[in-house]
Specification:
The chain has 144 residues and is mainly alpha-helical. The protein is built from seven helices and two strands. Helix 2 runs antiparallel to helix 3.
Length: 144
């Protein structure tokens, strides 16, 4: 479990109605079917592109498949598959919104990055995978 992100709990509901503390990333909170289900209901790019919705889950699966086909690197494909998993818990915040909020509230973007990184650490730890902080430059570039 990583350190607390806030001085007090920040409660969020689980599907069963119980609550979890978003301010305390914990690998025990990570459940792959829950992540997959939630990501399948989040529209990528905030639903802006015309046409049928494109979910974060679709993006993750398509990217992982492309990495497997092009590079035959299973670890890299799995790292990509989970790179947006924090959005299942935190929601998808698009870059323009983060930039706007940072312009209004200096430090917002850094705080948001810290929250995502802490949850990424918990997610990758839950699956016994290297967290983004331990990725090679090659892994970071390809997943990005």
């Amino acid at each position: 479990m990583t350190a607390r992100l806030a001085p007090h709990p920040v409660w969020a509901f689980r599907a069963d109605g119980s609550v979890m503390d978003l301010a305390r990333p914990d690998p025990a909170e990570i459940d792959l079917p829950t992540i997959a289900g939630r990501l399948s209901r989040i529209a990528r790019f905030n639903g802006v592109p015309e046409g049928p919705p494109f979910s974060v889950a679709q993006h993750s699966v398509m990217g992982a498949r492309a990495i497997l086909a092009e590079r035959r690197d299973t670890l890299l494909a799995v790292l990509f598959l989970l790179h947006d998993a924090h959005e299942a818990l935190l929601g998808d915040e698009i870059r323009p919104k983060t930039a706007l909020m940072d312009a209004i509230i200096p430090g917002y973007a850094a705080a948001w990055a810290r929250v995502k990184a802490a949850w990424d650490e918990a997610i990758y730890t839950a699956f016994s995978l290297p967290a983004p902080s331990r990725w090679t430059e090659r892994q970071r570039n390809i997943v990005h």
